[in-house]
Amino acid sequence: MSKADRAVVFAALGDPVRLNLLARLGDGGSITQLSVGLPITRQAVTRHLHVLERAKLIEARRCGREVRFVARPERLRQAMGWLDDVARQWDGTLGRLKSHVERKKR
Questions:
Q1: Of 20, 43, 52, 85, whose CB is crowded by the most CB atoms within 10 A?
Q2: Are 81 and 74 in contact (CB under 8 A)?
Q3: What does the pLDDT profile of the chain (106 residues) look like in tens digits?
Q4: DSSP assignment, residue 39?
Q5: Edge to edge, what strands does the sheet with 58-63 contain?
Q6: Structural domains in the chain plus CATH codes
Q7: What is the distance between the alpha carbons of residues 90 and 69, in angstroms, rounded to a whole number?
Q8: What is the pTM of this model?
């Protein structure tokens, strides 16, 4: 995943409404279904879904007259893989810092 892709994905995930929509998309859903219980208009839901779609976190599929949205978990797995890499780097750096500090105490 490129830096630009990561930026788009994490920007899309940075909104609580989009996180909620993504969580609701386990089995897919239409805009009407996804709008239920949200304090925003269907038009706002549509805009949020388009942000998630541009980030390739979801996919729109036409089913007759209805458009259904489904999550693309592979994109989330890519983002999680990058976060795991960053965490490993920090773990190594912090481990070296801890060793250095402990040696200085002696």
A1: 52
A2: no
A3: 788 899 999 999 999 999 999 999 877 899 999 999 899 999 999 999 999 999 999 999 998 899 999 999 999 899 889 889 888 888 788 888 888 888 888 7
A4: S
A5: 29-30, 66-71, 58-63
A6: 3-105 (1.10.10.10)
A7: 36
A8: 0.79
